Amino acid sequence: MTTSGRQFTLPLAELADRLTVDQIKEVLVPEHRESFSLEMEKISHDIDLIIAEKDLRLSSRLIRIIIALAQLNLHIWHNKDLMQKDAGRYMELLKLSHQLNGIRNQLKNLLLEETGEREKSAERSNFNTDGLENWTVSIR
């Protein structure tokens, strides 16, 4: 992949993940809104370049993967807040966050597949969700 004009050398899957996290931070950490907004502009620029370069087509699968990724990132963020507030549930919430991160990595792998960037070196390998029976993402 050519990186001409890009701000980041990350694949689209990582850029989309980072964009969802920055979007969450922009809302939940208003004192740093400006810096998150600037980074989102750079990420958006790179995403547009990748879309044009790869001639990617918008699909419902792509939209669903990104929506699910954003939802998981928000839930992980909320767990982090709960871990700080409720020390008695720290380990329980840490395990849940780790499991949710496993689903997040599965989704990033689906994005890599969707965009034709699924190389072994780019794959996310931590996708352990043992004991997480109540969480399913029906994207295949």
**SSE topology string:** HHHH
- Low-pLDDT segments, ≥5 res: none
What is the arithmetic mean of pLDDT?
88
Tally of DSSP β-strands: 0
Distance between the termini: 26 Å
**Major sheet details:** none
Rg, Å, rounded: 16 Å
Number of domains: 1
Please tally the helical runs, counting DSSP H or I stretches of 4 or more residues. 4
Q: What fraction, in percent, of the residue positions are helical? A: 55-70%
What does the overall shape look like? flat
Strand content: under 5%
What structural class should be given to the helix and strand makeup?
A: mainly alpha
Question: Which short descriptors sum up this protein?
Answer:
flat, about 65% helix, about 140 residues, 4 helices
Description:
The protein has 140 residues and is an all-alpha fold. The chain has 4 helices and no strands. α1 runs antiparallel to α2 and α1 crosses α3. The longest helix has 26 residues. The chain is flat and about 50 Å long. The mean pLDDT is 88.
Short description:
The protein has helices at 12-28, 33-54, 60-85, 90-114. The chain is mainly α and 140 residues long.
